[in-house]
Amino acid sequence: FVARPVWEGYPGAATRVLLPMTLAFNLLVPRSRRWLPILVLGNLSAIVGVSELTAPPHESFRVTGETALVRLERGEGWDQAEAGGGRQWRWSSGTGRLRLRSLAAEPLEVRMGGVIGAVKPGGITIRAGGAVVWSGEAEARRRAFGAAAFVLPAGGVCEIEFVSKEAGVRFADGDSRVLAFAVYDLDIAVARAGPAAKRGAR
Question: What is d(CA 132, CA 128) in angstroms, rounded to the nearest whole number?
């Protein structure tokens, strides 16, 4: 009776949908000591409802290190941010893009790491500026990954692509999204490039 879309987004529609049902239940339950356990059980959803008052998930992609020298822009291909169990993540339908824009007057060295999981086992490739910086297998059991470092030129823009070899899947439980893989707690560490990286960036 209460489909998945009711629980999606922030704030979800669950509060306004369940409130009239809860009020009706409390008005109709018999007022006697024998019905007291039923009355208590019927109102347990109020405890869960407190979670609706918590803040929504923050962005699951974060920049660390020299954060003032870059700007991260989320491109197309990502679903809304989700959180749970101390983690934050975004799903992608097959190809998700990020853009890293340099505000520095010198080259920067960038390293990426996080956790990845997929609906169906298959290969995932991460490219930065067209070059492959990580490639591996992803499956339902999440795995950590660490991409090879790459250089972001002074004042340049680098497009980062996460590409799945497997097509996304649409579930039959009321969720209309097409999901292929999810990236959890992606950390993009930015540092000033060393002499060797600077020479390579010229």
Answer: 6
